[in-house]
Amino acid sequence: MAMAREGGILAILMLLLPCFETTQSTTYKVGGDEGWSPTISMEAWSLQYKFYAGDKLVFDYDEQLYSVNLVDKKGYETCTVTKNAKTFESGHEEISLAFGPNYIIDGNPENCVNSMKLSINATARPPQRL
Questions:
Q1: Cα dist. 80→3, 58, 113 in Å?
Q2: Parallel, antiparallel or unpaired: strands 21-22 and 128-129
Q3: What is the domain-level CATH number for residue 112?
Q4: Model confidence at 17, in pLDDT bands (50, 70, 90)?
Q5: For strand 100-105 and strand 68-71, is the pairing parallel, antiparallel, or unpaired?
Q6: Cβ contact 45:90 at 8 Å
């Protein structure tokens, strides 16, 4: 009797399995082969992709020259590391995108003005079936 009940539960689970949804994050190397540097437009790089909340951005850069700063909209627009900014300076960062706008700049205002800044609006990932 217990075996029949376990078999019934297993059959129900197998029928329901296709109804469950899963999400996956995607990892992007910021700037492609160039990495986080002023040699390319970071905004142009970002326009190649559709970003979702939970996706990861990998920043590889020379920590002696550059930094990665998560700032608010005002910091992004003015290329200013605001007091609430989160600053990274290790040369390799992995940052998960939050839902909504994500603003990232280099700590040097000149680099920021010249292309080292990103504005990414991460949306909800569409559900995927298993």
A1: 66, 22, 10
A2: antiparallel
A3: 2.60.40.420
A4: very low
A5: antiparallel
A6: no
Q: Is residue 16 part of a domain?
A: no
CA dist., res. 26 & res. 39, Å (int): 24
Q: 97 lies in a domain? A: yes
For 67-93, how does the pLDDT look when each residue is reduced to its tens digit (9 = 90+)? Answer: 999 999 999 999 999 899 999 999 999
In a domain, 8, yes or no: no
Find all residues with CB under 8 Å of 39, minimum gap 6, and list them.
none
Structural domains in the chain (count)? 1
* Domain range for 117: 27-122
Asked if residue 102 is part of any domain, the answer here is yes
| Tokens at 128, concatenated | 């995927």
Write out pLDDT tens, residues 31-60.
Answer: 999 999 999 999 999 999 999 999 999 999
